Task: structure prediction
Amino acid sequence: MSDWETISLDYDEDVATLTVDRPDRLNALNVDTLEAIEEALAEAESEDVGALVLTGAGDDAFIAGADISYMQDLSTPEAQAYAELGHRVADKIETFPAPVIAAINGYAFGGGCELALACDLRVAAESAVLGQTEIDLGIIPGWGGTQRLPRLVGDEMARRLIFFGERIDAQDANEHGLVGEIVAGDQLDDHVAELATDLAAKPTYALSAAKEALNQAHETGQDAGLRYERRLWSGLFGTHDQREGMEAFLEDREPDFE
Result:
């Protein structure tokens, strides 16, 4: 296993937890941290985990955003490279073969919010605060926020959040669809671990195919998406999990998935 200074990657059976560990900087994302996350995602994928949890260290922040002290004096080419790195990480989260759950335990601003948007599920502590706050820095979301946020909250709400740089609490985030669930802060880790364990127990190939098909819905028109779904669906027939799942159903027993 790799050794990183600003993140950790821990395993509990088929569940991996990736923690951004810069609590003194509210887990802000500098280049080293982004590159470490990219490496950790590749490692977790190679371990064939059934679910991945993304969270931040400490009690204050999930990921407070990109590292402003680093960004301040970037040239346009340097900014382009930083944007590409952030996009690569967000894309790897979005396309990770297993479901990814964001355990939002505090501030999730700017790039931190964007990485949460790339996750499959978002669970927030009651104290969490989220926002695409870039406008007040003289920039816009640069790691996918302008594209992923409207898909979750709708066009009008996304424009309001991005134009005003508004920060919203967990309750408002839940009402607008930005997070799917709110739990008490002292219950967040256990609750997310339970969700991840339940997901990891599902049939791996079917879950991966479901994620791939759902992601495709945002990339193509409906006709192309339906064709993609049919291909993924039929490709699952003949797998161990398909045979086992249907046999267990007919025999009225619990399935034993791979």
Observations:
- The chain has eleven helices and ten strands.
- The longest strand covers residues 7-12.
